Structure formats: structure tokens, C-alpha cells
Amino acid sequence: MTQRIIKAPQGLAASPFNQSVLKLKGLTVIESCTNTVGKQGTMFLEDYLLMFVLNGTYTVRYGDQVYVVHKHEMVLLQKSIVIEYEKSGEPNQAYLLEYMMFFLKDEVLKDFIKMADIQSAQPTVLVPIFVNPISERLLTYLESLKPYFNEPDNIEDGLIKIKLLELLFDLSHANENIVQQLLQLKQQVRSDISTVVEQNILNPVSVNDLAYLSGRSLSSFKRDFQTIYNTSPSLWIRQKRLEKAKELLTYSAMSVTDVCFTTGFENVAHFSRVFKEHFGYTPSSYKQQLS
């Protein structure tokens, strides 16, 4: 069975994950403390992600690169990318795995950069994934946040915002390069539209995501895309996904559900409807005809 790509953070708060969650506009914080060995999955990151591993290891795969985040290490990940992960707890602690994830939206970073009056230094090399040790000050901060997960509905938004700002200031104190990486993420360099689209055609990306990855505003991306392909991004992407879906139904033993998720669709009913609109028959009936 093909593994579904989880859209994070929204997909992590639902079953079967059931992790502790704090939310504020522009921010989602997820705490996880479980016993696990070699659990694997795939995520599409809707926001920038800062993750702190407190026990165990969290392995991230992006393309052909592998990053292993050990106990008392943190990782910064770019938004709008698909990653594979594998997580395992400490063998001498009943495979205990503990980590915190901070999903940050653009406006949160913008507010912090303005408040802290941070200026961009000489550009550092932008990497989509950046691993660094956790300082004692950051460890103390993370410990201070734990009680809030016990009563998330009773925590005022203002307090969560203050704690977020504290985190960002602690980060800037621990390692200036981390802040510069955040600045670099906010200053995306223009990329070739065709390359970006082809690399992400089967990922559950939105047109907004593609615009970000290409280093353009949404309006600029749509305009440039129209010039290249002579159609809108949404129509072109849907057609390419449907063509790939039909190919998989024809030449593989994959189920309709697996084909749906493999080709970037997130809902089987929607996939079946648009497939029928395009080809004149549902994917299930097409599969039956082939049989």
C-alpha cells in the first residue's frame, strides 16, 4: 500500500497521531512523547519547521540527502517541501522518543525580524534543512513550555505569542547563523518555473506553494506560467496528474486509493469526479475494464 503524504502541521493534529498541540495565528506547536522504533512516513511542510529532539533520533530525507537529528539537536526546514522521516526512541529508555515542532508562518517571522531589528548579513548558503545543537538556554526554554500542553485551551494567545518571541530571541542568541537562515528563507531567489513545477507535480502542493518555491508572488507566478504553458497552473497541473493517474491504473497493480494519493490528490471522491470529467469514466470502472 502506498503511504499517504501528511500535510503538516494540520495532518499531525488528527488521528492517529493525537499529539499535544498549541495554536496561535501564524504558529502551531506540537509536542510528542512516545515509545517507537523505526516509524516511517512522509510529510509535506506547509510552514517553516523548527524541530527540537529531546530524546531519541529523528531522521529526515530530502531528495538524496539524509539528515540525522540526535538527542539535544534541532533542525530548521524550509516550507513547501516534501520530506521522508524515520523516528526511533532511546534503546536504553524503552525506545522513548520526545520532540517539539514549531511550525512558523511568514507573518510570524516578519514580525520578529521587524521587532528585533535584525539586518541581513552577508548571504549565507541557503540550505533547505539545517541541523544544529540545542543550547542550554534553549533546553531551559523548551522545559518551561511543557506545562502549557496540559491545558492548551486555557492558555491565552498573548502568552503563547510571548513564548514564541522568547524562542526566536533565544535562537538568535544561540546561533546567529540560524537567524540568517530564516532571513534567507524569506528572500527566495527566482527559480525556473518549469523545473519547480516538474519536481513537484505529484506532491500535494498548491499554486501558492509553487509560487513560493519559484521565488515569485502569486500573481507573477500565474502570469509567467501562462506565458510558458498558455494555460493556468491549476488546469495544467490537474491534467498532468490525471494523465499520470491513468498511466498508473493501466500499467500497475495499485488501487484507486493508492493512485489518488500518489498523484497528488488528497481526496478519493474528488479524484474520482475529476477523473470522470476528464476521461468520461471513473477510475474504478476503468480499472474494472482492464481486469
TrEMBL record:
Keywords: DNA-binding, Transcription, Transcription regulation. SUPFAM superfamilies: Homeodomain-like, Regulatory protein AraC. Residues 191-289 form the HTH araC/xylS-type domain. Pfam families: ExsA_N, HTH_18. This is Helix-turn-helix domain-containing protein. It comes from Paenibacillus germinis.
